[in-house]
Amino acid sequence: MSYRNTLKLLIASFLFLSTITTSQGQHTEQFFLSGTDNENTETWEFFCSSGRNSGFWSTIEVPSHWEQQGFGAYNYGRDYVTYGRSHEFADETGFYKRTFTIPQNFKGKSLELVFEGSMTDTEVKINGQSIGPAHQGSFYRFTYDITDFINLEKENLIEVKVSKMSSNNSVNRAERYADYWIFGGIFRPVYINAKPQQHIAHHAVVAEADGNLEVHLELENVTENHEIIATVSELNGKTIKEWKTKANSSGELVIKNKVENIKAWNSEFPNLYQLKLSLKGKGNKTLHEVEERIGFRTIKIIEGDGIYVNGVKVKMKGINRHAFWPETGRSLNASLDLMDILLMKEMNMNSVRTAHYPPDKSFLHLCDSLGLYVMDELGGWQNAYDTESGKILVREMVRRDVNHPSIIFWSNGNEGGTNKALDGDFDLYDPSKRPVVHAHHRPGNDFNGIDTDHYENYASLLKKFADSTLIYMPTEFLHAQDDGGGAAGLHDFWELMWASKMSGGGYLWVFADEGLVRTDIGNKIDVNRVNAPDGLLGPHRQKEGSFYAAREIFSPVKIFLDKLPEDFNGEIEVENRFHFTNLSEVNFEIAWVKYRKPGDPISGHVVIGQSEVESPNVKPGEKGKIKIPDLKLHSEAEGIYLKAIDPHGNEIYTWSWKINALKDFFEVINSSKNENNASDLTVSDSLSVLSAGGFTLTFDNANGTLSRIQKPSGMDLSFGNGPIFTYGAQRVSNIEKIEDGGSRSLIIKYDGHLKEAKWTIHPSGWVELNYTYNLPEGEYAYPGISFDYPESNVISAKWLGKGPYRIWKNRNQGTIDVHQNLYNDTHTGSTPWDYPEFKGYFGDISWMEINTAQGKFYVVSEKEGLNVRLFDFYGVSGPSSHPELPKGDISFLDGIPALGSKLALGITSNAAVYGPQGEMNTMDGTYTRTLYFYFDIIQDPTLSHDKTNRFPNEN
Q1: pTM here?
Q2: pLDDT score of 189
């Protein structure tokens, strides 16, 4: 993290903590009855009505969910749908109690009991007396005036009854019959606020980009003899504006002024200021003070045009985020909130939707500091709160969150969970009148000029942008169950969104797999089968392939160059996709590299030269060129890296290109300096045996496949049963042997799509396979050849190509380097979340090393465009996993399939609906490729080893 962001974090953390700890003087003082977060808890007495550990008093940590503390029973919200039958929900009631003594300096103060969040119906008694009506709704801050219920001189008793299921069915339908984990308990902090009798009860700030500032105040016990002093300061404490306003006895007051020369807040430059409001009495005595970080920014929707922040049209590179952690459910802390925000920023995102409820306060503080646009959502998964309860919850949500500059939208529920009678209530508590949206998947629910329809395909996306007068901003798209969706298809979607006038961007579903550590089944992680593994990250924020692909696709520095041209002159076209940043403010660095070779003990590359590159003056939305002035290392290097660093010191992305990565290989491959250089070929009725370079290859004449690899001083290598073409049947039509200068080759001709395979062993021991196939015009998912090899023997793979994550045709991003992955059997979205996945398609391969229990074997391709498939895997699970795989275990392919999602035409996972990159590979005609193999079989330790240099510059 950059120094600037570290500094902002320290400031954000200090200010957040200052609101939740006891402070002296005339600020609001706080006394915690619970802990402050999921890692800093307090022990209460607890009784659970049913389920595990029920029927007797014990203890529990607060805040927490009682399921994660070993009580009650679990429900995934819509279990009754998942299992296709009537299901009785776990509906325990939890009873909490503890004693406490009020601090002495609270005497004479107005006392307010605050719950930041409790699931679901919550009833409270202090010293045996009910302090008010039960609160209904899980994710909202609610308060009680307890001044008259507290014993100031002796110990007090608080008792809390929490009912998991609400007595209000609309609350259950909005929050608990949902597609996410549901819990019970006091899961956010509980504390007492102590304020002077004369105090500022509430303030709502309107801070516009031009410096105009309004503060709407609610005052208690204040008269016209009092006044308010407002002070605006920089975060370093320097005062830039201060003014006084007379109070009145109405209890409401609006103060206004203009602050000159401010720096506006946006996601790229999240400039913040400190606002202090002081209530003054006689003799200028300070009676009460409140402080708030504010950002000056203006939000406007121009219908038929776009979303504007500070007069600049912006598009949301957004994602949905559940407030969730595997061990503690929805009980979190500021460090977890920070981690999630930094991961979103790393993916070059600028916005987040708080699906499907308001987040922790600390999350919003950090969005303010680090720069994320927030869509703050009222609960309501696919059913809405009734109007009576909804009005209460809108008020609680907006009054808590109104002063965060990061919040630019309010969302009135999700996918049918919108009660339209509540639309006007947001403005009652938000004087800045942020836009309200309806996050939906049903036609006709657009609102305020924005259509948020979920899960459109590419064709319908084109139609919306062509025909609609509404701004289209899907609040969910490209559903990322397993490895599908997410960034698979995102390139085509985002390029269309970026180019379309009526696009407001959108929000991917979803940030992280919602995998829960189940305390009732030995702390195993449960994703409720296919319901919850929907993330671009794993439950503990393990980065999946879509994470890195989204980072490149969403990069605000857009590089168009796919491969370096032979006449590369140092110019690289670039587009500025920032909204507020000139590329002159971005730093660019170039590195010339040589790649590690097969046989090197480590992977990666060696930098042989690096320098900074002059940043081009390119305004937002415009194109220009990055110019590398010095190309003297171009002929020596094997690759080039270009890194972009934003104005805050954070890496945006690093692009990579190969130059001539195999230029030294073929000198070694064609070398004759080997004592075992004799070549021999015999063909019988059933077998053909080719020997040279210390190897013997045996072929089955009946099907024309390699059946045995032998080395006199070692064991057999089980690589064989190939080449098998990935489409159709093949039959041997002829076998020929040819001799060229003492070198013998075996040529096998076939009927079928595979036409010919020519095998040659060079004196160096390298085996050359030239193959030719012919395909009639058509669409093919994975054209190429396959071999068998026992997966159980494999230890690791190392390669020069894209990586380290597997790719799909429509998610083919990756860094060119020498990558190495240890074997694992990870299927994306399920335990053990061991990434990168070992198995899959890997692209742009120059060479690959497979390390096995029998030794290592290598493959090299001089021709570009080789994809290697490793073993059996799937992209999206279902009744049958998708997409289908080619024959064999290891495949060498000239094309690979794209990946859809579970929502792409149902279970067919049809990727073509997500855009051109999702379409099948179009093939027509004759194709050839040459592969070079080396089989480094484990040798008998009693025999001398072959010391041949198999690779250039081998260590």
Answers
A1: 0.95
A2: 98
